[in-house]
Design brief:
Elements: E1 3-11, E2 16-26, E3 29-40, H1 42-61, H2 63-66, E4 70-75, H3 78-84, H4 93-106, E5 111-116, H5 123-140
Parallel strand pairs: 1-4, 4-5
Antiparallel strand pairs: 1-2, 2-3
Helix pairs in contact: 1-4
Length: about 140
């Protein structure tokens, strides 16, 4: 089995209304998700997207199978990617808690790697963020 994840998070206002986007490819089958998060920062939304995607991938393959799977997480947030790869320190307490959430989820898989990719290669996850934000905005007015 091969699991490739693309994540994105965004906030309109920073902080402001925020959402996550995740595209999970499991052996060629694509699953797309977008979810409104409430008020938050871009970085909080980026982390929330990774937490969501890893949790959803585990759910999709099953807890026992997940232990044998390698996961590649692609994101356009250089900051979050470098923090997950232990290249940057985390100084904000809220971000430390999100880092721990991601770290704990990585332990459910055989191996999880984090890769920074250009925004152009992350359009599907970005579209899910914007769809969730637009949908929420439309329900408010």
């Amino acid at each position: 089995m091969n699991i490739v994840i693309h994540t994105d998070g965004g906030s309109r206002g920073n902080p402001g209304p925020s959402a996550l986007g995740a595209v999970i490819d499991i052996d060629g089958k694509r699953h797309e998700y977008g979810e409104f998060l409430g008020v938050g920062t871009n970085n909080e939304a980026e982390y929330a997207a990774v937490v969501f995607a890893l949790g959803k991938a585990k759910q999709l393959v099953g807890k026992e199978k997940a232990k044998h799977e390698e996961v590649q997480v692609n994101m356009d947030s250089e900051l979050i990617c470098r923090q997950m790869n232990h290249e940057y320190k985390i100084s904000i307490d809220r971000m430390k808690m999100l880092f721990i959430d991601v770290w704990n989820l990585t332990l459910d898989f055989k191996k999880v790697t984090f890769h920074h990719i250009p925004r152009e290669q992350n359009k599907a996850a970005d579209a899910m963020v914007n769809e969730a934000l637009d949908k929420q905005r439309n329900t408010l007015f």
